[in-house]
Amino acid sequence: MSNKLNGILMAHGFGSGQAGESLYLELYNAIKKAIIKKKLEYNTRLPPTRLLSQDLGVSRSTVVKAYDILCLENYITSVQGSGYFVNDFQQKKIKYSLKTYDKPTEYPSVSEKARRFRKHLNLMNRMHQPGLAFRPGLPPLDIFPVGQWQQLTNNYWKGVKYSDLSYKSSLGLDSLRKSIVNYLKIYRNIQCHYEQVVIVTGSLHSLSILGELLIDPGDEVIVENPTYANAIAIFRSLKSRMTALEIDEQGLDISDARKKVKNPKLIYTTPSNQYPSGVQMSLQRRLELLEYANARNCLIIEDDYDHEFSNWDNPITSIFGLDKNERVIYQGTFNKLLHPSIRLGYIIVPSYLIEDIKALYEQSLRFVSPEVQKVMSDFIERNYFSRHLRSVLQISRERREFFTTAFDKLFGGVLKILPVSGGLHLIVQLPETIDDVLFSDYLADNGIITFPYSKYFSREPKKNGLIMGFSSVSTPVIKQKLELMYQLYTAYPAVVKAE
Ligand SMILES: Cc1ncc(COP(=O)(O)O)c(C=O)c1O
């Protein structure tokens, strides 16, 4: 049998050293083919593994593996005490095959909403480009008090109760909601009840909840031009009708809406530090906005994403603080102040919306990690937060000063920084002959991260420039990267426009 079997196996490919195949697969394939072609007939007894391995000059485990797969696929059966026998192939006992199937050429399509988000992917991908210099919107990451945070996290786990590990309310831990109320009272002159506070993972999360909460297809939404591109992506995904109003030196001018918008449902604004133009909305315009919202029965989302940076020296009362008619939803974030990977923010909502928000939130993200919430609340209560805040503001101011001085010295007026009120980013104006998207890509390829200004305008006229952060890296790195940027700029062709 052995010699005969050897011959059969050789004839069916064993020993051919077929490209890349392991020996046990070669053996398995040869036996399988021989069974299918009836060269090994029904009930044939195969040699024991040790014998076959000696005959073929292979290890016993090679034979064992091959037999195992053949058993699994029902080509052969192992009979205890008797050995391995070929099954009846004609009786279609064979259940499996290792055949690989061709990939389907068609897949089910994704939803229209997903397709709308997809259009923004290129812009969003910039957020994840590696490197810190000069990514806009980052605080000084190198001074985050890792030790204090770690100590509070350890405390949390030392004192944790089993009930802490269970499901929690989507609105957030009461301790953090109360800490935020105290913080806003002291630092933002905002009065609210802790039951109006909803804990979220950040401003973007809050915008996505509020969009779902308030917008039906066709609803009219007023946005600023330029504005936060992620907000546009959310409102567009909900099929709202958006009207983008211009910004002047006093911020959003709502009088324009009187002619352009019939029945507004929502106004999205960034009054402390208009994103990304950097204009601070005047008190007069805030009052006009409230009057308009009251008269038209609509809501305002006040995105106060970096008021700590833009409002410090010249605080103007928030629109939420001026509102007497529950027209304003206020959103704040710790992602800018501490670091974006903390994913923690909050919304202050008129009380009549709370139950609807809760219902919607419960059905999606459920709730933010109670561990992070509790540590944040302790961080605030122990005054670590206010101390860190002061350092963050001081270092950011120093780095901003250093950046602008070094930039002006290097570029000597060839490129100019536009005046902005504060915050964590600056805008560098580019000549009209240079496409800001292409130039930003070119810088990114060389390790410098910027965002193209034109991408934040939802309609013409679009401005051409680079949005740049200055705060996340130390001054020697700022100097080194600005020098590199200057070299890259001088080597760049004077006219580069997109097709
Ligand atoms: C206008 C605006 N709001 C909010 C945020 C912060 O978003 P998040 O809290 O989700 O990180 C940003 C970040 O770039 C922003 O530009």
TrEMBL record:
**Which keywords fit this entry according to its UniProt record?**
DNA-binding, Pyridoxal phosphate, Transcription, Transcription regulation
Superkingdom in the source lineage? Bacteria
* Family annotation (InterPro entries): Aminotransferase_I/II_large, HTH_trans_reg/aminotransferase, PyrdxlP-dep_Trfase, PyrdxlP-dep_Trfase_major, Tscrpt_reg_HTH_GntR, WH-like_DNA-bd_sf, WH_DNA-bd_sf
Q: What GO molecular functions are on record for this protein?
A: DNA binding; DNA-binding transcription factor activity; pyridoxal phosphate binding
Task: Note whether DNA-binding occurs among the keywords.
Answer: yes
Which Pfam family, an example, fits this chain?
A: GntR
Q: Which residues form the HTH gntR-type domain?
A: 21-89
Provide the family line. In the C-terminal section; belongs to the class-I pyridoxal-phosphate-dependent aminotransferase family.
What protein does this entry describe? Transcriptional regulator, GntR family
Can you name the source organism?
Sinomicrobium oceani
